[in-house]
Amino acid sequence: MCATILNGQYVSFNINVYENRTALSFNNENLYVRPDYSLYVWDLLNYEPFSASDYPLTIESSDETVARIDGNYIYGVANGTAVITVSANDDLKATATINVGNYASRIDGIDSDEILMAIGDTKQLEYELYPSDGDTSDEVVTWSVDEEAKDCLAVSEDGVVTALKEGSGFVRATILCGEYEIYYINVYENLTSLAFREETNYIRTGNSAYIWNYLDYKPESAYGYPLTIESSNTDVIRVDGNYLYADMSGSAVITVSAGEDIIASATFNAGKYATSISSSDWSTINLPIGSTKQLEYILYPRNGDFSDEVKWFPIPENFSSAS
What we know:
Blueprint: E1 2-4, E2 10-12, E3 23-26, E4 30-33, E5 38-40, E6 45-48, E7 58-61, E8 67-70, E9 73-76, E10 80-89, E11 92-100, E12 106-110, E13 115-118, E14 122-124, E15 126-130, E16 142-145, E17 153-155, E18 160-163, E19 167-174, E20 180-188, E21 193-196, E22 200-204, E23 208-210, E24 215-218, E25 228-231, E26 237-240, E27 243-246, E28 250-257, E29 263-271, E30 276-279, E31 297-300
Parallel strand pairs: 4-11, 13-20, 22-29
Antiparallel strand pairs: 1-2, 3-6, 5-9, 7-10, 8-9, 10-11, 12-15, 14-18, 16-19, 17-18, 19-20, 21-24, 23-27, 25-28, 26-27, 28-29, 30-31
């Protein structure tokens, strides 16, 4: 919209027309904030219609020495309580009590990436409150399990989670200001048997090996079950998660356990071994009776030192010679 005077000069006005609100309320009757921290009012409200966001509001505090208003923000000033009133017109108002105190502004989970548990296991979930160097003595952390995971997970009021049955889901830790952290927990079926496929295994120095590739186990659905893995010589082969790392030539006994009664062990040798082998000629080899041929192969990594490697050519059980 413009206003123009006779000499042609004009001024323009940018006018934003909002849809009138029909409903307005706070998400919670009680709000929480630290001194010198702020809350954005629109994050605290329920309203209709949704298109009426940013509708001009009147925001008031009953005690500006506790909580003051600046635009659409509520700032904590000093410990105490005040009533916040938000109004869109004379007939549409909402109120909530704001508590200013030693509350956290954020919560972060410790080891909140995927957590692996076996059926029947319990685990204390850890977290850190922020500001990490501030007093958060007034804070209360509330624990809950998402609805779709309540058949496989339970959590106590102090954050101890119990694995009830196979499945996965989220546990939520919520602080008073509404911020939260989620923990993804995967519950595996208990292992009933566990064994290494070979008593002696080989890893090329400088390479790694995934432990599950060496194991036979039941049930198959227990793949990924939390294991305890130990090396008898960590200078030669060290353990990191489910991987074995060959740091120098030598040997070590690797012991894998899934509880006191399910234990398996095998020897792992680290040295100048090949990581894989392939044929030099993938076509079918036709040999007359009585003839000989040198079979050729390629060891990997290419151009590597394979001085510890041993090659042999076992005859398959189903092999039959021509007569």
